[in-house]
Amino acid sequence: MTARNFPESFVWGSATAAYQIEGAATEDGRGRSIWDTYSHTPGRTLNGDTGDVAADHYHRWPQDLDHIAALGLSAYRFSISWPRVQPGGSGRFNPAGLDFYARLVDGLLERGIRPVATMYHWDLPQELEDAGGWPARDTALRFEEYAAGIVGALGDRVHTWTTLNEPWCSAYLGYGSGVHAPGRTEPAAALAAVHHLNLAHGLAGRVVRELTPSAELSVTLNLHVVRGASGSAADADAVRRIDALANRAFLGPMLQGAYPADLLADTAAVTDWSFVRSGDEKLIAVPLDVLGVNYYSSTLVRAWDGHSARSAADGHGASAHSPWVGAEDVDFLPQPGPYTAMGWNIDPPALTELLLRLRHDYPGQPLMITENGAAFDDVVSADAGVHDDRRIDYLRRHIGAVADARAQGVDVRGYFVWSLLDNFEWGYGYDRRFGIIRVDYDTQERTWKDSAHWYRRLVATGQLDG
Ligand code: PNW
């Protein structure tokens, strides 16, 4: 057993997102988002679940902040609901919505917890989708206006501003495969969405720099660790293509000021990328204080010859639409397991690999794990406890993977567990539970799972055993 230590300065946190926990979908002047529309469309989410009530955090936030304080966490990552603060997505701001987040931020500061605010965790105002959504350039300009409004209202009290959460999901799941809102399946639009999300990040990043120079600026990406099934040149090329679409489509413009040439070439049959205007890439490359990394699982691919049977691991075979725009010649293979309740392969060493790769490719860029965690089929025991040993094991091994990267000199400054609470897991509704705190959706009662007790001890000691 080697004890792995984290310094006093390491930031321990937990993360949530507005639509997944707040509920109060029609209260105090909140507008509608694409997730309201999508979840209320029959057949889109498991069991027809919606975020209308969710974990009722909008009314229970003081107790929820008490839980964060009792866990001993130094930071809390939450998101601001765009339609709550700017109901139509442009023009008028809603004072009641801004006030909710002002109280939340003050409540965190009173408890000595650092607010890490995400501007966009997928809840685009429906009006903006009706006007074209992320495939339309104007959405990025509207985002700049929204950013100025919230940074103007909260800026000096928010420690870290995160522009976007996982633009990969917004673009490819929202507009490519359609398994996320708004549920469109238009490959060219997905790539236009990639660019306008990147542009929105750059524009909002500049707003943060101008309005609140002392705040930290970040973005959160769900980076993929892609492995090839064999050492063949064809499989290596499949890895390269998926890496371009998943990772470098965002890392390139954000950290290096340009889209990778291979990405543009690979997708030339889908789009000519003429929506990228001169000067855009420079704008997108606003320097980041910290890059947020969300990591859950890894990806295994092989080159597809066009004839042999496809594996259905990513929906290529199972459904007509794939998020992997322009990569029809790549096959996604089932992984060895074990799996979480999401069907995601558990692969902690891939997280170390990812962090080492980021250090190698983007030297000097500080990193933060802004999400990591697991859904399992939790059961409430006769003693009323939730003995989620598998979640503890998942967290222990992934935090160990972070320690391994740090031991090799990678500048990882913090770790946020996903999630503080069980919540609305998008297309999977309330069926998949990621919380370290259980939510009883009938009573809204919160119960610490064993993983919450375990995390509290880790945070208190900074020592990981096992
Ligand atoms: C992330 N994928 O979502 C989100 O940031 C959270 O809101 C979410 O609850 C959490 O991870 C767990 O799912 C993802 O298909 C959704 O690769 C889908 C994917 C990745 C991340």
Automatic annotation (TrEMBL):
Q: Which SUPFAM superfamilies match?
A: (Trans)glycosidases
GO molecular function terms here? beta-galactosidase activity
User: EC class of this enzyme?
Assistant: hydrolase
Entry-linked PROSITE patterns: GLYCOSYL_HYDROL_F1_2
Q: Which reaction does it catalyse?
A: Hydrolysis of terminal, non-reducing beta-D-glucosyl residues with release of beta-D-glucose
PANTHER family on file: GLYCOSYL HYDROLASE (PTHR10353), LP05116P (PTHR10353:SF36)
Protein's UniProt name: Beta-glucosidase
Show the taxonomic lineage. Bacteria, Bacillati, Actinomycetota, Actinomycetes, Micromonosporales
